[in-house]
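User: Could you walk me through two proteins back to back? I'd like the raw sequence and the structure tokens for each, with a short line separating them so I can tell where one ends and the next begins.

Assistant: Of course. Protein one, sequence then structure:
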Amino acid sequence: MSAPPVRTLADLDGDVLAHCAGYLGARDVASLAMACRPLRAAAYCDAVWYRLFRDQWPFEKVPCDALGLRELYIHRHTEIHQMKFGDPISALYYLDPAGTTPSHVMMDRNSIWFCQGPAAKKLNIDLPETEIVETHRNHSARITCLRLFPLIDTPLFRSDTQKNEKALVTSSTDRTIRLCWKGYSRCYKGHSAPVTALADRLLMDGESKLLASGGEDCTIRLWSMSTRAKNHPLIATFHGHEKALSFLSVAWHKSSLLVSCSKDSKVKVWDTVSPSSGSSSCVGSAHLNSNGPPIAMKCHESLCYIAAGAEVTAIDLRTMKKASVLALQNHRILSCEMMPSEWLICTGTKDRALLWDIRKAQELPNTVAEMQSSGPVTLLHLDQYKVVTGVPSDGQVHVWETRTGHSLNTLGCGEPSRLGVRSRVSAMAVDGCRIAMAGSSPEGCMLHYRDFATASAPVVSLPGKEKEVSRFWRPQEFDDSEEEDSKASWNNQTR
């Protein structure tokens, strides 16, 4: 008796496949479309994308005669991430007026982390009930760096229920490093001068994870995150730099390699497997020909990109040779964001932001976009949808389209001042379609949060002419007629 024929998923009826795809999320449906033609046809079915659209935006109307619901979904998803709307959920939170201006803003899911002098605070943004749920006052001086690491990689991890939690690590001018989580604090002492840099990731080292720090004492120190090294966490001290450390980054192609950059524009690579104190662990060194201190550093695959002076230099970590140099003519770099996976680098200068395509040869015009500014661009964000630029004294941030440099929106920090004095922006953090801005105004220090996920009214007025928001954490209120007009306007534009 012959065996029954082998059947595969692609042998199922198209309607059955489309029904199965209806249980998947947008990312899984997109992955399904890349498998084969029958699955692609099922993944592109309008019924599937209608369900995804309704799940993502339940209160948004879908045109009755809309064709190509997948394209409609992608179009709306893109516009939301480009913040092209004037009615985001917007909330303004005023901080303790006795505190210093917030800095080092980071977003993690439904929380905003920020620093005020020596204190680190966590603001829960589960609207409408929002409050500061954690305050860590473990440092005696200004915080210089803030990092969030998965709790599972720290000695604070206890059960699988905590696998999505993150622990806070801060460094300070008081020469210490603190690991904090929900009231718990662990201190790392060893630097003889202010700590100026923390590695962007934890180093892999067998059973344990290592934290790297650098300071004004020109040393790099490795700290064990294991509970077995609780009493003696300092693993090694690296010497070799002659000035204070500016940046530390873990190499992508090998997680045991640590890349350091100091204010003297020297770049070094350290092998942290069985490290030994001193300079013997240094496996590579290079010097940047720049006329200014490092501004930013980012590792991608086997390359390390460093912005300093008027240049962005790519160094091959395998040979420590310069792979490419992006030179700005007569423009000193004040801020820099890099997206090497998309071949894009954005630099902020005294009066503009410049977006570069790093695939093009140096002798060819490789500027993608040029975004004008009213002052020095020291606040910068870059992703595949948008560029966000900020001038601290301007009190606003500007949103631009990544591929074209077209202006999309202007967002103010705080309420329009009744005294005629503009607010200032001290820091910002962008996460997808959400943005948090920290700053100060005549009314005091503040955090301004916006979420464009459910926005529906396209920006039609002049940038910056937004409605005033409440000083309390709650969405803006609109009457029904305004909401219906906004939805109708958006629907007409997407037909």
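----
Protein two, same layout:
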Amino acid sequence: MSAKNSLSMDFYKYLCQKIGYEEEVKVRRLFYIIHDLRAKTADKTQITSGSRGEGLQLKGSDLDLMFIDTTFQVYESDRDVPHSGWCMPLVMNTEDTHPGFTQLHLVNDHGLICWHDNTGEYALENTLHWQNLILNAFQLREFSSELYRLHTMAICSKFSRMLKFHGPCISTLEETHDIASCLKCDKWISEAQPWIIRPRTTWPSPDLISKIISCGVLFVPIGYKGSSNEHLQWRISFSVAEKFLIFSFSQTPLLCYALLKVLVKEIVENHEDLQGLLCSYFLKTLMFWISEESEPSMWRPNTIIPCCMACLKRLIYCVEYSTLLHYFIPDNNLFYLRFNVDQIEKMSSLLKNSFEKGIYCFTRSETLFDIITLHFNDTDSEIRILGALRFDLKNPVCTYRYNTCNLLYSLLHYSSSKISKSIFCTPI
């Protein structure tokens, strides 16, 4: 085995120890699936999303919960709405909305009558609960995402008053929980139909595609930022589909995805003016595109380092050109007007600096700071790790001063005899 492959294998084993072995990931996923099933009620279906739902154990990860509000049912056109049913029917209207967003309108007063007639005592109680929201919707003929969020906040406030809005979610002040109430359409929408048939290598498989489209899509209560009718719009969400896709990843791409999350959360986010510009959803989208365009044989434990660097290189490209297309609706550029010129320059510089240092850029992270305990097989590795150490030591207000001390101790304790002690006397 070559020196580079050997280092990749060491790195792969190290990441499994830090983030989770394949079996551990499966157990975590199963735990949250069972937790979601047990939490299901007559009017709510729970989905655990985010890192925890994906089976990743990362520091600082909050609990992301989505609740499908089964009081309402979304249809793509009036023709799809049944004449009777126990759900309040809502119909999509994408004529004046940005790709990936829609407005929802009520069909007619008959829809409300049918809803009353078919729901029984439970629905009557629920009707009273949503009375103001629904009456407002009938007056405007549009179902407001903003009002829906306010009503959801009112409900959650009964259990805790320490809450705030976080995008479409309601979050605790400590940001330990993110809760999003959403609506569902049981059918795959036409706007995402091209995804099913577009050319790809072998991922995702036809069976997986079939399973995904059978789950329909979700709608979360937030509009396109800056739109004149932002308060009425809903973002089309593919969270269920994305969970299926993440679950289909082998261990190597999953670890690459986790590495990007660590890079953003623990290195990029340390720069105040770059906070909030990149998020896990963007990284997930990036991984989907790379996985679709590459051969599965690329993702091997003994090639995890070049795979990781390829993912980081793609992220740098996306930032520099402000282009990251939505995976299911490519007409929606997620990076459109996302960064200003200064932010692009600084972000690109930071990411390129990380790319040059290779995997040892993670010495600056809290999760992987002890990466230097890996065995060094070549001089290039020594140079990279020393460069990463110098970067930290130059910063007098480094967030991870304590970890830097541990880094030096670990390097002294674990380094091979190849590394001369005189290195530590080199001026910084």
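The domain at 40-248 is CATH 3.30.460 (Beta Polymerase; domain 2).

Let me know if you want the two compared in more detail.
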